[in-house]
Amino acid sequence: VRAREPGNRFEKNFPFAAKGGEDKINREFKIKTAERPAGPQIKYRLPRRARQREERTAMEHKKKISVAIDGPSGAGKSTLARAAAKELGLLYVDTGAIYRTVTLYVLRRGAEPKDAAAVAALLPEAGITMDYDPGGLQRMYLNGEDVTDQIRSQEVSMAASAAASHPAVRAFLLEMQRDMAKKRSVVMDGRDIGTVVLPEADVKIFLTASSEARARRRWLELQQRGVSGDFDQLLRETRERDENDMNRAAAPLRPAADAITLDTTKINFQESLARLIEIIRERTGL
Ligand code: DC
Questions:
Q1: Cβ burial 134-146 (10 Å sphere, 16+ → b, else e)
Q2: Which of 90, 94, 270, 286 has the fewest other C-beta atoms within 10 Å?
Q3: Whose CA is nearest to atom 5 of ligand 1?
């Protein structure tokens, strides 16, 4: 591990880190470039209507727009972010789905998601691609197989929280995420979008809700799918994932200094969406 030299690639990517104070993120990226496998591929098989809408938005604003949405699991980020992106003519990027796909590969290979070395060794073989279906939904592929639905299992959820804690995994996915925001106007959701992936995003939102409210929503969602869930267990798992995501050394979940916090504990979906769109419009002039 080399000491960080001023003006190197790391500092170009993380201008805020060069100013100091981002020790944890510095630690994360003291990975030698040679040790980093090339990141996954993205294919933009965007439906024509969505592409036209997004191009119009970018043209009207004469630049690419990026909206970063971070927050704990189960705060409704993906449903809200997707709906807001659609309304505003932006591309929705669910980065959690990308971490989940890496995790599914790790599980399938029988590796322990907590084992940093075992997970890192598998990355070069994990053929991850994504595209968008005609309905505008992001689909994930693992070595060519569509795994969009499989990555939603509770097993993958728990394992993803562990796998995503490894710096090698985060470094592996970083360029892919940045590249999308360079090429398209995006609403990107995750845990470290405002702090690490897109520190220059036009708007940063920290979307949160109490752990009880999040576990209750998950319980209802399961019920609607005809699956009975144990509320206490869901609450425990929600808290365990928060604990993992917030306390890891590499790019922990936390609001960016300039993020706007939107707490949805006491408001319903429609109210949350209206508020989210309002914040984005205010900040971007969309
Ligand atoms: O948003 P999600 O629940 O689908 O994310 C799955 C896991 O991936 C979650 O436990 C944290 C991790 N993740 C992350 O560390 N960074 C991101 N940008 C997105 C997800």
A1: eebebbbbbeeee
A2: 270
A3: 96
How many Å apart are CA 96 and CA 227, to the nearest integer? 23
DSSP string, 166-205: SHHHHHHHHHHHHHHHHHS-EEEEESSIIIII-TT-SEEE
pTM (predicted TM-score): 0.82
Q: Which of 191, 204, 244 to mutate to test the pocket of ligand 1 (most atoms within 8 A of CB)?
A: 191
pLDDT in tens, 226-281: 988 899 999 999 999 899 889 888 888 999 999 999 999 999 999 999 999 999 99
Residue 37 or 9, more confident: 37
- Ligand 1: which of 94, 95, 175 to mutate, most ligand atoms within 8 Å of CB? 95
Distance 166 CA to ligand 1 centre (A): 12
Q: What percentage of residues in the chain have a pLDDT greater than 90?
A: 59
* Binding pocket residue ranges, ligand 1, CB within 6 Å: 73, 95-96, 99-100, 160-161, 164, 190-193, 241, 245
180-235 pLDDT, tens digit each: 899 889 999 999 999 999 999 999 999 999 999 999 998 998 899 898 889 999 99
Cβ 167 vs Cβ 119: under 8 Å: no
3-state secondary structure of 131: strand
Distance CA 96, CA 191 (A): 8
Query: What residue spans of 109-254 are helical by DSSP H?
Result: 116-122, 154-163, 167-183, 211-224, 231-247
Residue type at 185 in one-letter notation: S
SS3 146: strand
> What's the distance, Cα to Cα, between the start and end of the chain in Å?
44
Strands 138-142 and 128-132, how do they pair?
antiparallel
